[in-house]
């Protein structure tokens, strides 16, 4: 999911809490502050911190004061309600901090707390949806993105991320509808066009796919995903030289992209035109992709199997393909599983796989 990420959005606390509630700078000791201030004043201190909060310590300090305020029997309902919302904001910001550090579990805990405190906090809902999606909790992710859209229908990223979830679920028609809404809201986002281009490609709507992918790369000439998807499209069309050029561009843009390396390996192992096949380099690129991304991705293992088959190492190809099928259980679409099993049968017959050309186009000659 190339766009799934946490989006940082600030909060204007002064617009929510009357200025009369905001307290002066607290004493150096939080315990002394709690002992001498009313719940209203403690909430004001937390609000003042929020105005400039940037670090986990700031957010944790806010939460401390708000917890003390809401635990007091003297707090009035109006202030309790605001304190809950402000605390939810602080937990969401903590979650964004943890997400930026790659601490996904800690981030999800913070986002869940933020939503529990304020179920109308669309930023926290969206961020929790991102965390769910990254953990393959796709139904929950879709629900959170849908809730975000109900509250804030103009937030293009929520439409895009829901489309990404639908893609993973194999619901391509729904994905295209959501990509299209994202494009309508922000027509200059290259990632939105690339996502919809991929969906059109999978539906074999080649003209629409090419239009979107070309537009994506016009908007962002460094978009690795755009080059990868256009390379896939051109490979399927038989435009081998153009496909090779797109894959080369993807690897140049991001030499650590496992998907870019896998794409190069796939073409070198499976292209029907022998001028673009390279046994040794196909194996090298396939192994490098696995080195970067791990050996639990069925597509990477499938590519390694194809490289083995192309080299005539069919016993290794069968073994790796069987593992790819096992890994694909619960992840791959029905069509993907069918294709994986078809390739296994070919390798068992000691036949390498060759990419099927959907619509042959004239292409210049040359090596990859």
Defining traits:
mainly alpha, elongated, 368 residues, disordered C terminus, 18 helices
Structure commentary:
The protein has a domain of 118 residues. Helix content is 69%, strand content 0%. The chain is mainly alpha-helical and 368 residues long. The radius of gyration is 26 Å and the shape is elongated. The two termini are 28 Å apart. The chain is built from 18 helices and no strands.
Please specify the SSE layout and strand pairing.
Layout: H1 30-36, H2 39-52, H3 56-70, H4 77-100, H5 104-117, H6 122-134, H7 138-151, H8 156-168, H9 172-185, H10 190-202, H11 206-219, H12 224-237, H13 240-253, H14 258-270, H15 279-293, H16 298-310, H17 314-328, H18 334-348
Helix pairs in contact: 2-3, 2-4, 3-4, 4-5, 5-6, 6-7, 7-8, 8-9, 9-10, 10-11, 10-12, 11-12, 12-13, 12-14, 13-14, 14-15, 14-16, 15-16, 16-17, 17-18
Number of beta-strand segments: 0
- The number of helical elements comes to 18
Give, in order, the helices and strands: HHHHHHHHHHHHHHHHHH
Largest sheet: none
Strand content: under 5%
The unreliable regions are 5-27, 360-368
User: Helicity range of the residues?
Assistant: 55-70%
Global Rg: 26 Å
Class of secondary structure makeup: mainly alpha
N-to-C CA distance? 28 Å
Q: Which overall shape is indicated by the principal axes computed on the Cα atoms?
A: elongated
| Average residue-wise pLDDT | 89
């Amino acid at each position: 999911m190339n766009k799934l990420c946490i989006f940082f959005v600030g909060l204007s606390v002064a617009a929510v809490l009357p200025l009369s509630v905001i307290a002066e700078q607290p004493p150096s000791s939080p315990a002394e502050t709690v002992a001498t201030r009313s719940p209203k004043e403690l909430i004001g201190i937390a609000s003042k911190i929020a105005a400039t909060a940037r670090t986990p310590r700031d957010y944790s300090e806010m939460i401390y004061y708000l917890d003390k305020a809401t635990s007091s029997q003297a707090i009035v309902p109006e202030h309790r309600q605001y304190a809950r919302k402000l605390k939810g904001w602080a937990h969401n910001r903590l979650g964004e901090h943890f997400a930026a550090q790659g601490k996904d579990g800690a981030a999800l805990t913070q986002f869940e707390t933020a939503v529990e405190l304020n179920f109308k906090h669309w930023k926290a809902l969206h961020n929790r949806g991102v965390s769910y999606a990254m953990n393959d909790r796709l139904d929950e992710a879709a629900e959170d993105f849908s809730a975000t859209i109900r509250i804030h229908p103009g937030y293009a990223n929520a439409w895009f991320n829901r489309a990404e979830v639908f893609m993973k679920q194999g619901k391509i028609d729904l994905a295209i509808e959501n990509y299209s809404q994202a494009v309508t809201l922000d027509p200059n986002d290259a990632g939105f066009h690339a996502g919809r281009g991929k969906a059109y490609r999978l539906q074999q709507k080649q003209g629409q796919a090419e239009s979107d992918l070309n537009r994506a790369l016009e908007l962002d000439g460094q978009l690795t995903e755009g080059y990868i998807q256009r390379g896939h499209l051109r490979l399927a069309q038989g435009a081998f030289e153009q496909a090779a050029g797109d894959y080369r561009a993807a690897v140049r843009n991001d030499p650590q992209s496992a998907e870019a390396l896998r794409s190069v390996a796939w073409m070198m192992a499976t292209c029907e035109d022998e001028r673009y096949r390279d046994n040794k380099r196909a194996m090298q690129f396939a192994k490098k992709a696995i080195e970067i991304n791990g050996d639990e991705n069925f597509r990477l293992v499938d590519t390694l199997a194809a490289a083995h088959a192309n080299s005539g190492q069919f016993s290794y190809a069968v073994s790796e393909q069987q593992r790819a099928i096992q890994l694909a259980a619960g992840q791959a679409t029905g069509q993907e599983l069918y294709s994986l099993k078809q390739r296994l049968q070919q390798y068992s017959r000691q036949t390498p796989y060759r990419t099927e050309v959907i619509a042959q186009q004239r292409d210049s000659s040359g090596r990859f």
